[in-house]
Amino acid sequence: MSYDRWLGRTPGTGHSPPGSGDDHEPGPAPRRRSDWRVVRHSPEREDLEPVEGEKRYGRTIAWTLAWYVVPLALFTGWTMLFADDSGPACYGQVDGSCPSVPSAVLGAFTNGLPQLCAALMISLLSALLIRLGSGAWRPVTAAFAAAVIGAGASTLLFSAIGT
After folding, report:
1. What is the pLDDT of residue 118?
2. Which of 150, 146, 70, 141 is nearest to 116 (CA)?
3. Low complexity compositional bias: what residue ranges (predicted)?
4. Confidence of residue 34 (pLDDT cuts 50, 70, 90)
5. Radius of gyration of the chain (CA)
6. pTM listed for this prediction
7. Domain residue ranges in the chain
8. pLDDT of residue 16 exceeding 80
């Protein structure tokens, strides 16, 4: 059974089945492509010219760093807006065991710094490997994917070693 007959059309006319409400002028179906041949996409093609400088490793590294530095800078700026007092939760403390909010945030940041550095290193390595494997992704897209991979891998690594 031919495709046109299966759809209920008269072969070669491009018409809808009778009684479907489509009353347009009969004629050949419009061709959307001038060439119907299938072309294999491979680097060995003669008509494919190599593009120089398409991988842009420097931009990928810069974007990967930006995915870490910009949120870190925003978080640091936000914590600088906190007051120096320790808040109402520490009013009953007499030994001074409640630190101020900015110093508590700084302490937590220094405790998490090894994981942040590991995530950054894994992300930079992932970004270079992504760019090495494919030049089809834009640098910002490859950097975002590398940042996600690095953050996830470092979380799994530090969870596995229990630090």
Report:
1. 94
2. 150
3. 8-20
4. low
5. 30
6. 0.59
7. 57-76+99-161
8. no
